[in-house]
Amino acid sequence: MEVVGGVPFCIQTLVQAGLVEVPSQYIQPPESQPGSCRESSDSSIPIVDLLHIKTKHFGNVHEELSRACGEWGAFQVINHGVPKQLLDCMRSAGLSFFKEFPEDERDKYRCDLNSAASEGYGSKMLMKEDSVLDWRVYFDHHTLPLSRCNPMRWPDSHPHYRETVMEYSDHMKTLALKLLTLISESLGLPSSCIEEAVGEIFQNITVSFYPSCPQPELTLGLQAHSDMGAITLLIQDEVAGLQVLKDGQWLTVQPLSDAIVVLLGDQTEILSNGRYRSAVHKAITNAKNDRLSVATFHDPAKTTKTFPVAELINESSPPRYREVVYGDYVSSWYTKGPDGKRNIDGLLIHH
Ligand SMILES: O=C(O)CCC(=O)C(=O)O
Ligand SMILES: [Fe+2]
């Protein structure tokens, strides 16, 4: 077992061995500890029903999306057209890697620690050496464009692992594009506007596994951040843990087995000139249960330049963000991290 900074790589193994105290590298500074954050239990992110979209009966969908994207940057979709069976199959395939493979088998899939967002099994989100460690292990799959997709690099811990990830990737891309269309329309833009600005979709699928934690009040499964790309689609199991920040309070996203959580990323906030916001979110741990989530990220190519859409700029609404090359945005994130504030705030133009 590899040791990172004196701590075995796999917290899962530590937990199974009966760990009662969290190693110091995992203890969050007091202000980030879940116990010291303001939580709201009486509200959660909106739910948007896409049932009638297929027949072009939009009802209030655009208004609902506009509110959800403007106020939260996060919502759950139901009747999204992705078969429930595929969601369940993706969850069990993901779980099989963490539950059915022993640590030395998982180790064969380790990602490259020296390169950002490399494919495979890992535990650190950022490459900074000094950050507190997340109580999480993950497997990142590169799925789109197909030129970066090689299923032979994925585990076969489940009889249908590779075909499930391929089929899931396909459905997530279709849903992401459908949502980008609706989001464009809800901003009063031509249907294809945001999709065209994002360009060719780069998709990664990350399965995150959060082992139960003996001291959940001191740790985070995943530190607070907003996703860098355009749009993230996430499913979780029945164990709650994802929280979204709204007006200074953390709201827990209720696990709904057939819903898909939508998180707007920083590039969408820039394209919308700040009318829509990216969601600041984090994952907390709990003492009783392991938790699993599958996040599918849809990002622009590294060479794509993002800037506010021209149609949204006028005298009363000047550009609020500087243009950025997506690849530069990503590198600065991996080396500096969010550092307690939103990465995107570095691009703000102060009028
Ligand atoms: O596990 C979760 O619910 C959150 C995962 C996440 O935010 C991420 O992978 O970027
Ligand atoms: Fe995220």
From TrEMBL:
<dbReference type="InterPro" id="IPR005123">
    <property type="entry name" value="Oxoglu/Fe-dep_dioxygenase_dom"/>
</dbReference>
<keyword id="KW-0560">Oxidoreductase</keyword>
<dbReference type="GO" id="GO:0046872">
    <property type="term" value="F:metal ion binding"/>
</dbReference>
<keyword id="KW-0408">Iron</keyword>
<dbReference type="Pfam" id="PF03171">
    <property type="entry name" value="2OG-FeII_Oxy"/>
</dbReference>
<dbReference type="InterPro" id="IPR050295">
    <property type="entry name" value="Plant_2OG-oxidoreductases"/>
</dbReference>
<dbReference type="InterPro" id="IPR044861">
    <property type="entry name" value="IPNS-like_FE2OG_OXY"/>
</dbReference>
<dbReference type="Pfam" id="PF14226">
    <property type="entry name" value="DIOX_N"/>
</dbReference>
<dbReference type="InterPro" id="IPR026992">
    <property type="entry name" value="DIOX_N"/>
</dbReference>
<protein>
    <recommendedName>
        <fullName>Fe2OG dioxygenase domain-containing protein</fullName>
    </recommendedName>
</protein>
<feature type="domain" description="Fe2OG dioxygenase">
    <location>
        <begin position="200"/>
        <end position="300"/>
    </location>
</feature>
<comment type="similarity">
    <text>Belongs to the iron/ascorbate-dependent oxidoreductase family.</text>
</comment>
<dbReference type="GO" id="GO:0016491">
    <property type="term" value="F:oxidoreductase activity"/>
</dbReference>
<keyword id="KW-0479">Metal-binding</keyword>
<dbReference type="InterPro" id="IPR027443">
    <property type="entry name" value="IPNS-like_sf"/>
</dbReference>
